[in-house]
TrEMBL record:
Keyword set includes Cell wall biogenesis/degradation: no
This protein's UniProt keywords: DNA-binding, Phosphoprotein, Plasmid, Transcription, Transcription regulation
Response regulatory domain segment(s): 4-120
Modification sites for 4-aspartylphosphate: 55
Name this polypeptide is given: DNA-binding response regulator
Gene3D superfamilies documented for this protein: 3.40.50.2300
Protein species of origin: Planococcus lenghuensis
GO molecular function, one term: DNA binding
Length: 223
């Protein structure tokens, strides 16, 4: 089945060249073209293309905002950005706007066609030149998320347990007895037993061992 594509780029010659590439082997058909960000929504609603291929750095400055508005209104929209810039900031902004692909204008014809097909089929495509940055960014975000997890006052499962119950659960995971937990938290053993009982009820655990295993398995406590 032939893919339908909508092109938005302020350079008419580039659009014509891109159209020839996409339609060369009959794999795609360009059914709409535009040159401003403000034209995106109207053209999309009129033609409903399989893929919107757009240079987000348009002269009217509305490319990024228009794509964000489009993907918010039509979450099913498939958008691929195509640019002459491999700047990390541009890539990040494009992905945040809702683009599922980021192509470079100096790509070969076959690569452009494959990238558009990938986005149309629900996959993501990021030019290989950006791969090292993506890996570094993923690692950075993972480390940030992990630090936030362990530094937060109330950690998961915060929707289940109170902060004090989380404290007790962490001490249980560390192997502390009720007496040791009471001494650490400056509360009575009776209060500790009450916390443990509520933890088991909320976690649907039969005993403290089962609760601790579930907490460790789900990353709710650090040991």
């Amino acid at each position: 089945m032939t893919l339908t594509v909508m092109l938005v780029d302020q350079n008419t010659q580039f659009r014509e060249g891109l159209k020839r590439i996409l339609e060369a082997d009959g794999a795609a058909e360009v059914i709409a073209e535009g040159d401003t960000g403000k034209s995106i929504l109207g053209l999309y609603e009129k033609h409903c293309p399989d893929v919107l291929l757009i240079d987000l750095n348009l002269s009217d400055g509305e490319g990024m905002r228009s794509v964000s508005g489009l993907t918010a209104r039509y979450p099913q929209a498939k958008v691929a950005a195509i640019s002459s810039s491999s700047d990390q900031t541009n890539v990040s902004r494009a992905l945040q706007a809702g683009a599922e692909g980021y192509l470079l204008k100096n790509m070969g014809a076959d690569s452009i066609v494959r990238a558009v097909e990938a986005v149309a089929h629900g996959d993501s495509y990021i030019h290989p030149q950006m791969t090292p940055w993506l890996i570094a960014e993923f690692c950075r975000l993972s480390e940030t998320e992990e630090r936030a997890f362990y530094q937060s006052d109330i950690r998961p499962p915060y929707y289940l347990l109170t902060k004090r119950e989380v404290d007790v659960l962490e001490l249980l995971a560390a192997g502390s007895s009720n007496q040791e937990i009471a001494a650490t938290l400056f509360i009575s053993e009776k209060t500790v037993k009450g916390h443990v009982s509520r933890i088991l009820d909320k976690m649907y655990a039969e005993d403290r061992t089962q609760a601790v295993v579930a907490a460790i398995k789900n990353g709710w406590v650090k040991i």
